[in-house]
C-alpha cells in the first residue's frame, strides 16, 4: 500500500461512509484499502480508480490456493494465475472485475470469492475463472472470509456491520450483526471455526462465537490508529493484529492479554500481515520490503525481503510454509525461500 495513498483514502472515506451501502468502497477514495485478505483500488493520474490493464499496476491481492498448486494475484481490474514457485504469470487473466475490494479462496480451493464496484459478491471457479452460480447482490463489503468448513461466507462492511451467507443457497443467515462503530477492515476465523475475529477502524478487535454471533470475551483494545489486519495462529491460541500506525500486537486468544510488547514495523501501516502455516513466523509488508518476524515473540528473523524503493504492498505464505510471496507497487510478484 502506498502510504500517502492510504492517508488520502482515510480522509476521503470519512465523508463517504454513508454511500458505502450502494458503492464499492475501494472505488471511493484515492488509494488502497488492504486487510488479511487485502482490498484495493488505485487512483490514476486521470482520475481512474482502477486500471483495466494490470501491467505495472500495484499488486493489491496475493493468495496461494490452499493446496499450494497456484498463486493468484490481482492488480488493477485483473486477477491472474502465477507459478507458485517463481511468481511468473501463467496464461491469460483468470478473470476481470471492476475495482476488486475483497478476494478470498474457499478452504477447498475450488472457489474464489470477490467483491467489486457492483457491490456484489461473485464466485469464480479458481481453475477456469468462470462464474459459479449467481452473485450475492447489494453487499458493501470491505473484506470477505469463508468459514473453515466452506459452508458460510462472511463480510465486514463500512458501517461496522457483519453479515453471513449460505454459500450453497446464497441466502443470508440471520440478521446483520452490528459489530463495530466504524469500518471493518479485516475478518478471520479461528482454525476450528468456532470464533470469528473482526478488526475495525474504531481501534478494536472483537471476537464472536461464529455459531451464535454473540460476543466472546472483551474487545481487544490498545491500538491507537485503526486496526487493519487480524490473523490467528495455526493452533488458534494466538491472535496477531496490525494497525494504521504500523504497530503489530500479539495476543493470547483465550485471555485477551498481550503476549509481547507492541511491535513497530518499518511501515506507516500494518495492513498486510500474514502468519506462516507452521506457526513459526509472521510477515508484514513495509516501506523497505517484506519483513519476517518470530511468531513467538515478535523479534526480527532477518532483514527485509524484496527491497524496493516504494516498498512491498502485500505478502502471502505458501501452504507448506516454505516460501513467502511478495507483491509490489509496479506489478512485480516474487517468491522467496524461507529459513529452514
TrEMBL record:
It comes from Cryptosporangium aurantiacum. InterPro entries: WD40/YVTN_repeat-like_dom_sf (IPR015943), WD40_repeat_CS (IPR019775), WD40_repeat_dom_sf (IPR036322), WD40_rpt (IPR001680). The chain crosses the membrane at residues 12-33. This is WD domain-containing protein, G-beta repeat-containing protein. CDD domains: WD40. SMART domains: WD40 (SM00320). Keywords: Membrane, Repeat, Transmembrane, Transmembrane helix, WD repeat. The keyword Repeat applies. WD repeats lie at residues 102-134, 144-175, 177-218, 220-261, 305-340. It holds the Pfam family WD40.
Amino acid at each position: 500500500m502506498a502510504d500517502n495513498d492510504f492517508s488520502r483514502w482515510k480522509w476521503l472515506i470519512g465523508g463517504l461512509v454513508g454511500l458505502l451501502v450502494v458503492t464499492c468502497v475501494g472505488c471511493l477514495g484515492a488509494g488502497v484499502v488492504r486487510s488479511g485478505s487485502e482490498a484495493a483500488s488505485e487512483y490514476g493520474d486521470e482520475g481512474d480508480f482502477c486500471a483495466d490493464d494490470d501491467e505495472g499496476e500495484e499488486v493489491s491481492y496475493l493468495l496461494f490456493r490452499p493446496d499450494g498448486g497456484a498463486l493468484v494475484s490481482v492488480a488493477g481490474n485483473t486477477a491472474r494465475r502465477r507459478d507458485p514457485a517463481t511468481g511468473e504469470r501463467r496464461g491469460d487473466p483468470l478473470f476481470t472485475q471492476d475495482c476488486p475490494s475483497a478476494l478470498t479462496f474457499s478452504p477447498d480451493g475450488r472457489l474464489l470469492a470477490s467483491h467489486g464496484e457492483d457491490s456484489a459478491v461473485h464466485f469464480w471457479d479458481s481453475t477456469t475463472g468462470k462464474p459459479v452460480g449467481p452473485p450475492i447482490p447489494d453487499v458493501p463489503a470491505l473484506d470477505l472470509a469463508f468459514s473453515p468448513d466452506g459452508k458460510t461466507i462472511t463480510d465486514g462492511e463500512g458501517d461496522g456491520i457483519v453479515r453471513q451467507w449460505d454459500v450453497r443457497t446464497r441466502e443470508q443467515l440471520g440478521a446483520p450483526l452490528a459489530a463495530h462503530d466504524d469500518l471493518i477492515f479485516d475478518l478471520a476465523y479461528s482454525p476450528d471455526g468456532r470464533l470469528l475475529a473482526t478488526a475495525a477502524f474504531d481501534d478494536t478487535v472483537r471476537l464472536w462465537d461464529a455459531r451464535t454471533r454473540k460476543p466472546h470475551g472483551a474487545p481487544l483494545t490498545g491500538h491507537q490508529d485503526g486496526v487493519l489486519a487480524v490473523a490467528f495462529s495455526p493452533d488458534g491460541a494466538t491472535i496477531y493484529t496490525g494497525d494504521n500506525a504500523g504497530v503489530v500486537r500479539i495476543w493470547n486468544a483465550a485471555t485477551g492479554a498481550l503476549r509481547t510488547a507492541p511491535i513497530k514495523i518499518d511501515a506507516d501501516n500494518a495492513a498486510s500481515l500474514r502468519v506462516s502455516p507452521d506457526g513459526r513466523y509472521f510477515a508484514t509488508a513495509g516501506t523497505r520490503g517484506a519483513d519476517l518476524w518470530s511468531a513467538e515473540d515478535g523479534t526480527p528473523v532477518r532483514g527485509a525481503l524484496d527491497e524496493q524503493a516504494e516498498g512491498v504492498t502485500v505478502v502471502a505464505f505458501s501452504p507448506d510454509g516454505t516460501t513467502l510471496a511478495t507483491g509490489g507497487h509496479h506489478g512485480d510478484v516474487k517468491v522467496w525461500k524461507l529459513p529452514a
